[in-house]
Amino acid sequence: MSEFLNKLNWFPGHMAKALKEMSEEVKNVDMVIYVLDARAPKSSINPEFVGIIGSKPILYILNKADMVLPEDLSKFKAGFKGNNSYVLELNSTKTGATKMIEPIMTNLCREKIEKNRAKGFNTRLRAMVIGIPNSGKSTLINNLCGKKKTITGNKAGVTKGKQWLTLGNGFEVLDTPGTLYPKITNNKTAINLAMIGSIRNEVIDMPELAIDFINFCKSTNFGILSYYNVTDKTLSSLEILEQIAEHKNFLLKRGELDYDKTAFAIIDDFRKGKLGKIILDN
Ligand SMILES: Nc1nc2c(ncn2[C@@H]2O[C@H](COP(=O)(O)OP(=O)(O)OP(=O)(O)O)[C@@H](O)[C@H]2O)c(=O)[nH]1
Ligand SMILES: [Mg+2]
What we know:
This protein is an alpha/beta fold. Helices cover 36% and strands 12% of the residues. The protein has helices spanning 13-25, 49-53, 70-77, 101-108, 110-119, 137-145, 187-195, 206-220, 237-248, 259-271, and strands at residues 31-37, 58-63, 85-90, 126-131, 163-166, 172-175.
């Protein structure tokens, strides 16, 4: 358990309920569309989904691909390819970005389609869209529909309940609330999920998370911090946070540095892509 997570609230009851509902709904679908966040493709895997998906075909979407470098993302693609699965990089906010999805769905479900065709009837494919909170499931569905039919927002927990949508060709997709899992034992995974906005801000110790992120920059790509004019590699992560606070003039009334405001600003800058195209997983 990561220290910056408040143990009480980060796996709320509605997620447990949603996971239960998904294990029921999966019986009614032909395949699953599994939306991952390209900024953390490995950390966006929810271990609870394995049992839910079973042997259904899976289309993995490496969503928010516009926020990372293609050459970095391509290293992660191989892990998602398989006999019964396909992987697609996507920017779901771009009009028309999802036009390849329907042919891929048809291809993944060709056995069922052929069986039905032999019996003389057409197949209207049904897919359940799943993923961690804030990965872009509802945005992807709106793109598929060609209009805004679901509510979206850049924070965890926007979709509250399941919702069926019909696409132009009669295919049906089920939007589901983003879900995490009861035990995130890997600290790095927890940090990444928090950074990409998959865990509600309210249960995160922001200064702790910002320090963890600065540690990540120091160990992988110090250049990220040049956004804040930080160039001295000998500084500790706390000293870097303090330098950023001074640089931004984030002070409390008594003239002390405002650690909370600074931490929130750094995390927000990352989430908005201002710090560059960064993949947090390795
Ligand atoms: N840059 C970028 N932003 C995206 C993309 N897809 C979604 N977003 C943004 O990500 C945020 C979350 O999108 P949603 O569609 O609400 O995410 P969700 O997975 O449905 O979230 P929950 O319902 O909370 O589980 C929104 O601000 C979207 O505009 C993408 O491909 N690229
Ligand atoms: Mg949603």
